[in-house]
Amino acid sequence: MKGTVSFAFHEVGKTTKALGLLNQGECIDNVTGPLGNPSEVKNFGKVLCVGGSVMIAPMLLQVKAMKEAGNDVTTILGARTKEFIMMEKEAKTISDKVYIATDDGTKGYKGLDFLKDLLKKEKFDRCVVMGPVILMKDVSEITKPYCIPTIIATTPIMIDGMGMCGVCRVSVDGKMQFGCVDGPEFDGHKVDFDGLILRQRTMLPEERLSSVLWEISGGCKCGRSKA
Amino acid sequence: MAEAKPKPKLNKKAVEMAKQEPKVRAKNFSEVALGYNEAEALEEASRCLQCPKPMCMTGCPVEVPIPEFIKLLKEKKYSEAIAMIKSKNALPAVCGRVCPQEVQCQAKCIIGKMGDPLSIGRLERFLADWERDNGYALPQKAVPTGKKVAIIGAGPAGLTAAADLVKLGHEITMFEALHVGGGVLSYGIPEFRLPKAIVQNEVAYIQKLGVDLRLGNLVGRIHTIPELMKNGYEAVFIGSGAGLPQFTGCPGENLGGIYSANEFLIRVNLMKAFQFPDYDTPIRIGKHVVVIGGGNVAMDCARSSMRLGAEACLLYRRSRAELPARHEEVENAEEEGLVCKFLGAPIEFYGDESGWVKGMKCIAMELTEPDAKGRRGVKEVQGSEFTMDVDTVIIAIGQTPNPIIQRTTDGLQSDARHGTICVNEVGKTSLDGVYAGGDVATGAATVISAMGAGKRAAKAMHEYLTNKK
C-alpha cells in the first residue's frame, strides 16, 4: 500500500518477540531507512530468484522488479520446514515458474538437489539469493560451476546500519567490506560464508540470555503479560 | 608599565578539581571529574590577571571572550558570565569537560609561564553546570530571514553551525542519522568523561533556540543533498563526522571478540551495554582486553573495559612520548589500572573453534629518525615476534569520514585517499551553497576544532544567504 512500509520478521529473540506483541496503534521508537545500496535490476534475460524463510518477503519484491524489467523469472521458495514457506500465492502470481523446497521434505523438494538437476536442463543469466547464510552459501556453490553470476544479500549483525560500527564486516574476494554501506548485496562466488556464519553467532549466548530473562520477567517491562 | 601598577599577588598553584578516587571510579560509569564548587571557582577565577591583551583567546578555536566571562564570574554574575560564553560557544558544558585546554587557551595563558595556567576549562564547566541547575536563558534572535538551511549531523560542528545560524534568523532543520543527537558526544565519548544527560541538555538548548532536529534521518540515503536543495533549502552544512572505523588488515581480524573502537563505544555508550540485560545491546569482554592505538579513543576504550571488569592493556606502536592522547587521560587511565605496552603492533589474530579471538601475534617496533615534520616513523624489528593471550581486542587506530554523502552527491569534491570532503578556509565545498566542516573535512580531530569549523562555516553561509537575492 502506498505510504506504508511492511516488515516481515521471524520471532526468534527478545526484540522480534516483543515486536510481535505490538498492537495496532502502538509505536516503535525509531525506524530508519532505506539503508544500503539499491539492488541492480535490469533486463538480464533469465533470472533465478531464491528466497529462504522470512527473506522470501524481500525476495519477492525483487522478483516483481525483475519481472517488470522484462526478465523471465524462476522463483524458488525454501525453508527448514513447511510452516516457514510463506507468500506462495504471491510468488506464483508474479513469477514465470515457482519451485518449493524444504530441508525436511515436508513441502516440495527435499533439499537443494533438484536445483542441480534444474541447472543441467536450463540456462540462467543471473541468480539472486536471499535467506539464511547457509542457504546463500549452498546455492552459490551450486551455481558456481555453471558460471551464473550469483548475488547474495547479507544480513549480518549491525548496530547502526550506516557504516559506523564495522560489526557487519564481511570478507569479499579477500577484501573487507561492510554489509551496510558496501552491500548488502555481494557476489556470492567471492563471499567468505564461513567467516560470515561465525560472525553471525558471536553474541548467541547473550541473545539467548536476553530472551530467556525477558520471558521469565513476564514479557515486557510495561507490566503487560504475554497473552 | 609594569612598575606603574601594584604587582598582583599571584597564587602559582591552580585550585585542584575533585575527582573520584581511582579505585572507586574504575568500577563505575559515573563522571570521574566532579567539578568546582562555588568557592573553588571564585578562588581560581581570582588568579586571572585580566590581561589587556589576552593571549588565552588566541588559543580558542571559537573565540570565547575568556577575560570577560571570568570578570563576570569573579563578580558572581553567573548568568551574565555564561551568556558571555554562549555568545560564542553553544556547548560550554561539553567544552569545559573535553576540550584539550592545555594545548589551547591555557597553553597561551600568561600566568602559565610562572606557575599553573588559569584553569579556564574548569571555570567554563562550573558556569555551564550552574546554568543547568538554575535554568537556561535564551538569547535574542534576529528577525526571521525566511531562508531555510539544512544541517547534516547533530555533532559538535553541526550543533555549533545550527546555533549560530538560527540566532541570525534563519530557519534551521538538522538531520541526524542516529536516534539521539550529539554525534560523537553521544556515541563516542564515554559517560564517565561526558555524562549523556549533559549532552542531551546541550542538544535540547539548541532545539530551544528554534532548531528543528530530525532524528533517524540519514542524508544520502533517505534524501540526498540535491533533493534537499530542490525542496527549498538554500544552503546545506555537512557535519557528518568521521564515523567509519579503520582496521589493521591483519589476518584473523574478522574473528569474534575483535571490536572496532566505534563498535565497542557505541555498544557501551550509546546503547548502554554496561547495563545489559536491562538494556538490549550486549557486550562480551572477558578478562584480558588489548586496545590497539594510542589516542583519546583508545583511552576511552581501555577505561570503559576496566569498568566492565576486565584488565586492560594498551598496545601502541610508538613510545610514550608520541602518545596522541591527552596527557590527563593517560594519567587517569593508568591510575585506574591500565598497563601500557609501547613499541609493539599486531601482525595476526587467532581464535578458538567457535571463532572467538584467543591470542595475537605481535612484533616489536622501533622508532626511526624524525621526518621533515618532526614526526617519528616506526619500523618492525626483525625476528622480534611475541604473542599475547587475549579475550577481547579493540582496534582504536582511527576513523575516516563516512562515505555515504560523498557517494550520493554528484559534483561534491572529496579526497579519494582520506575520504574527506574538500573545502576552502571557510568550509565551502565544490558545490554552490554547500558547506562542510569538522571531521568530515579534516579527518578525525577534536570536538572544539569541529566547533570552530562549524562557526566559520556558519559565518560564511550567513554571508552567502544574505548576498543571494
Q: How would you describe the overall organization of this protein?
A:
The complex is a heterodimer of chains A (227) and B (469). Chain A is an alpha/beta fold and 227 residues long. Chain A has a single domain (40-216), classed as Rossmann fold (3-Layer(aba) Sandwich), CATH 3.40.50. Chain A is built from seven helices and nine strands; from the N terminus they run αβαβαββαβαββββαα. In chain A, the strands form two sheets. A seven-stranded mixed sheet of chain A has the order 4-3-2-1-5-6-9, sandwiched between helices. Chain A has a two-stranded antiparallel sheet with strand order 7-8. Chain A is globular and about 55 Å long. Chain A starts with 13 loop residues before the first helix and ends in an 11-residue tail after the last helix. The model of chain A is unreliable at 221-227 (pLDDT under 50). Chain B has 469 residues and is an alpha/beta fold. Chain B folds into three domains: 2-134, Fumarate Reductase Iron-sulfur Protein, Chain B, domain 2 (Orthogonal Bundle); 148-243 and 400-467, FAD/NAD(P)-binding domain (3-Layer(bba) Sandwich), CATH 3.50.50.60; 247-397, 3-Layer(bba) Sandwich (FAD/NAD(P)-binding domain). Chain B is 32% helix and 16% strand. Chain B has 17 helices and 16 strands. Chain B has helices spanning 22-25, 38-45, 66-74, 78-86, 92-98, 105-108, 120-134, 156-167, 184-187, 196-208, 225-230, 261-270, 296-307, 327-335, 404-408, 439-442, 447-467; strands spanning 148-152, 171-175, 212-214, 233-238, 244-245, 258-260, 288-292, 311-315, 339-341, 344-351, 357-370, 376-380, 386-389, 392-395, 399-400, 434-436. In chain B, helix 13 links the parallel strand 7 and strand 8 (311-315). The radius of gyration of chain B is 23 Å and the shape is globular. Chains A and B meet through strand 7, helix 6 and helix 7 of A and strand 5 and helix 12 of B.
